[in-house]
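Dear colleagues,

For the upcoming journal club I promised to circulate an example of a predicted protein-ligand complex. I picked one with HMN because it came up in last month's discussion. The inputs are reproduced below in full, followed by the predicted structure.
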Amino acid sequence: MKGIITALMVSYDQDGNLNEKGLREIIRYNVDVCKVDGLYVNGSTGENFMISTEEKKEIFRITKDEVKGQVPLIAQVGSVNLREAIDLAKYATDLGYDALSAVTPFYYKFNFNEIKHYYNSIINAVDNKMIIYSIPFLTGVNMSLDQFAELFENEKIIGVKFTAGDFYLLERMRKKFPEKLIYGGFDEMLLPATVLGIDGAIGSTFNVNGQRARQIFELGKQGKIEEAREIQHVTNDLISEILDNGLYQTIKEMLKEKGVDAGFCREPMEKLSEERIAKARSIAKNHL
Ligand code: HMN
């Protein structure tokens, strides 16, 4: 489960209904064209926090079916509704997902004991492994090195998806937890995170830019920093245009430009204007 792992996009139709055919095409594009090392299913990029439990299960099922064992799969099951998280953990484990991940519980200001209880409750309910999903800029949950150490005392908690710019903390974690898996979360900072020794990265832009991400990661690991930096520059030109135009909507339009039925985003995310659709298409034409 190391390397470049796509935070999988999901296709929804105009009315916001799950588009199974489109989802299967996105999966195929990731595996066959972007040639990524794994898929992270029902993360932020999958619009997970805007869909129902049944839809989450349907996405887990379709993805497992379409991938046919070609790449490892990580199921993001985190939810402020702990019962839902445990239910999803059981469901994904029964399907044969290689690992689970759960976002830190958010919205309420849970104390650390509550966060620890949440992770242990999910992972101790199943025969599987857990990757903590830490994304403080969206959840407001910042954990210290000592708190990560306490969570990692449970041997079933095998790693962390570190979506943060605090590279001092990243370096401290690498030193303190050499045996745990650490994944970078910001695609625009893939090279510095690679230099600090991450095991892999999980990102949204890998849905379209997976091949460049792999080059950055592999060159960085080999110490070929100048070459890796050039590719990170090109990548960040792409990412900054995507972010300016609307992250998930733009990636979907770029996939459509590549012939993939990527659909639309789930409301309340807005639909792009004609002008922004044209911009997204031109980003794909110019950068992919
Ligand atoms: C997920 O859960 O879908 C992703 O792993 C999240 C991932 O860290 C992305 N973060 C968000 O979308 C908030 C990044 O790939 C991000 O989209 C990218 O670095 C552009 O900023």
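Two points we might discuss: The chain has one domain: 3-224. Strands lie at 3-7, 38-41, 73-76, 99-103, 130-134, 157-162, 181-184, 200-203.

See you all on Thursday,
B. R.
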